[in-house]
Amino acid sequence: MANSCRASQQEVLSMVIAGIPCTMPAIWIGLIVIFLIVEGLTAGLVTIWFAVGALAALIAAMFHAPLWLQLVWFFAVSIAAFAVTRPLVKKYINSRTQPTNADMLIGQECLVTEDIDNLAGRGAVSVGGKVWTARAQTDAPIPAGTAAIVLRIEGVKLIVTPACVTAGAKE
After folding, report:
1. What's the pTM?
2. Is 68 helix (H, G, I), strand (E, B) or coil?
3. Helix count and strand count (H, E) for the chain
4. Considering the chain, what is the average pLDDT of its residues?
């Protein structure tokens, strides 16, 4: 009786794919290979979690676990691998972001080319050979010809403060 039960389990764990008989370990190995190939072809970590899950399911299949248990191992380990490693990977991958050209203007000295008046909604500065719309950090007007420092960028406007205010604050 034990042998007939074992034989029926083996029949359940083997399939015929495109006329080729396959056992579950072969299927899990095939999935691992597919997941790793897809992972190698993509820029970010996309399928590595599933490759780890398929490895766990392969181990279960090698011990003749039923198909439902192999699937449970596959999904549980894939989800656990994703949950544990994704935040760490995201931290290291996103820590290498480079500022855009506009972000490089922050902290640069610029020359006010048009009086900056927040209340009137006008003003411009020249920095890096380009003219930008500008607003003052405070509502105090900044006259044309004044040296200023770029504090931040809001949309397409540079937020500036007079250079003498910044220099005085540092001292």
Report:
1. 0.48
2. helix
3. 5, 7
4. 82
Q: CB of 107 within 8 A of CB of 160? A: no
Task: Give the angle subtended at the CA of 109 by the CAs of 105 and 111, to the nearest 5°.
Answer: 110
Q: Are 122 and 115 in contact (CB under 8 A)?
A: yes
- Whole-angstrom distance, CA of residue 48 vs CA of residue 35: 7
Comparing 52 with 155, the larger pLDDT belongs to 52
Three-state DSSP class for residue 133: strand
**CA 66, CA 44: separation in Å to the nearest integer?**
33
Give whole-number Cα distances, 13 to 43, 62, 90, in Å: 35, 11, 37
Query: In one letter, which amino acid is 147?
Result: A
Residue 112: CA count within 13 A, CB half-sphere: 23
Tell me how far apart the alpha carbons of residues 22 and 19 are, in angstroms, rounded to a whole number.
9
Q: How far apart are CA 152 and CA 159, in angstroms?
A: 5
Residue whose entry in the numeric block shows the structure tokens 């920095």: 127
